[in-house]
Each structure stands twice: as structure tokens, then as C-alpha cells.
Amino acid sequence: MMDLSLHKQLFPLLSLLLILFLSGQRMQAEANNSLQNPQLCEPTKKLFVFGDSYADTGNIRKSLSNSWKDPYGITFPGKPAGRFSDGRVLTDYIAKYLGVKTPVPYRFRKQMAQQLKYGMNFAVGGTGVFDTSTPGPNMTTQIQLLEQLIHDGLYTASDLTNSIALVSVAGNDYSHYLATHASPQGLPYFVASVVNQTTRNLMRIKALGVKKIIVGSLQPLGCLPQVTAFSSFQQCNASSNTLVAFHNNLLNQAVTNLNQSWSSSFAVLNLYDSFMSVLNHPTTHNIQNQLRPCCVGVNSKYSCGSVDENNVKMYRVCDDPKSAFFWDLVHPTQAGWHAVYNKLRTMNALQGIQF
């Protein structure tokens, strides 16, 4: 007859062995199920981002930009985080559409290593395809940063084949050109050079193995508050938008030619039409102020986020950022980007970025 005290000692051990056995059976079943259903273990889709302030989520240095100062970020994430808006920007909405988390900014890759599986954002506010007045990496250098990470083994060939690239070219090259050239006569030739360099950049990203590449068309620069301020924010500048149309026509032609060689690997994100649709029908998107910015300096010496030598704020913020399309003189609010995103969806303009 078994001693009762010995029985009491063996019972927990037997229970533990039974639990381990059943756990092993379940893990084996899950492994077999994964082998039979490869979609259960598909790698995470990745988003790689290149460009400027329309896509930057925190790469620009704090010493260079008001985007790290109040009141930027008041809507999301609730404090300044480097985004050129009161909240989310284009990158956040493209990531949302793809079903991934917003990729980590390159400068925070070591602090946010757990999010590298969603891709990486190399965009820096103020930069262009060429060098501009902003001392940040132009797009060629941004692509080199990804090349180095691939060389270092951070991303593999299989990572790249399951990735999408977003390329933002929002006009900093043109701002720099106009600021440094006395005559605008050479502008058409410069537009062609910007599109040609953009095309080379797209080809270089594709050569890394990225599955799909989307490049934003130029938004209506003539409708930005820094331009419409001359009409008291009443109307867009037609001459500026004519330049935009020329850029976008060349870009569309270039992408069409690329797709003939690379079987529809490239797509143009039609930001021009989506911006104009929202600006022409603002109340449809719950926008009340379509051209007047929400955050402005108290006078021409200051801008959104400026403070004086006594750290006294020298800007004004509108009562309801959700009712404004533009946040500052150049960038949309979160509500503005959300309206553009919804318009892109209804235009079926986002279907081309899936794979």
C-alpha cells in the first residue's frame, strides 16, 4: 500500500508532466498547421519612406525645426514629436492603409529597435532630391542609408521583397531654386532635372529589391498659405500651379516608362487632385477654413512655434485645428491629411500600392 505522504509529493509532479505533455502536443499541432498554411507565418509587410516634411515623422534635428516645439503635435501624439503638423502626416495614413505601424524614423532606430520590422522612415523635413538650404540628407543620401542597413544585415532580401516604398517630393527643390536664382527663366529646365533625378532615385530603390514604389505627385503649391497670404488666403496662385502641372505631367510620363520595364512596380499617388478636391469642397470633409492656416506667427517676423528672447510665444493657434486644412504656412493639419487620405481612397488611388 502506497504511503499517503509519498502520494501527495508525486501528485504535483505528475500534474506538471501532464501539462508539459499537452503543451508539447499543442505546439506540434500549431507547427504542423503553419506548414500547411504558409500565410500564418508570412513576414511582416514593411514600409520604407524617403523625402521631406510631408513624410518626416521625426528625423529632422531639433535644432533646425519648429516641428519639435509647441504647438506642433497637440492633436497627436499630444506633444511635439518632429511631425510638421498638429498630428499625423502622410506617412501615418499610408502605413494605416497597409495595415502596419508607422515605421520608425532612422534617427531613432536604436531606441525603437522593436519596431524595425515595420520598415524605416528616412524622410527629413526641408530636403529635396538635390541639396537645399536645409542641412539634411537629400534623397540620394537617404537611399544610401538604407543600402548601408542592408549591407549591415539589418534587412534581408526577403524583407525587401515584402516591402513598399513611399517617396515624397513636395517642392523644396523649387523653393531653393527660386530663392537662389534671380531669374525664373531656367525653371522649366530645372523641373525636368528634378523629375529626372526623382526617376533615378525610384530606379535605385527598385534595384534594392523593393516590391512596390509609390511617389507622390506635387501638391498644388499655389494653394499653400505662404503663397495665398498675398490674397489674404482667398485664392490659389494659378502661375504656381502651372509649374506643378508641368512637374506632374513629366512625372507621370516617367513612371509610365518605368512600368514598361518593371511591370507596374511603380505608382503615382495623386496628391494634386486629392488636395484640390478637398480645397474645392471643404465642407464635404468637415473643413471650414481651407486656405487660412491654423497656426501663424503674430507678425511676419515669426512663424508657428516661434518664441521671443524671453520664451514668450509669438504665434496664434486657431480654436479648432480639426476645422482647418492647413496647419502652418506649408503643411496640412491632421484633419487635412485625413481628408486627403479619404479622397485618395474614394478615387481608388490607393489600390495601386497594394501587392
Automatic annotation (TrEMBL):
Keyword annotations of the record: Hydrolase, Lipid degradation, Lipid metabolism, Signal
Keyword Transferase included in the entry's annotation: no
Signal peptide extent: 1-31
Gene3D superfamilies xrefs: SGNH hydrolase (3.40.50.1110)
KW Metal-binding (keyword) present: no
One MF term in the entry's GO annotations: hydrolase activity, acting on ester bonds
Superkingdom to which the source organism belongs: Eukaryota
GO biological process, one term: lipid catabolic process
Family: Belongs to the 'GDSL' lipolytic enzyme family.
The protein, known as: GDSL esterase/lipase
Organism for this UniProt entry: Arachis hypogaea
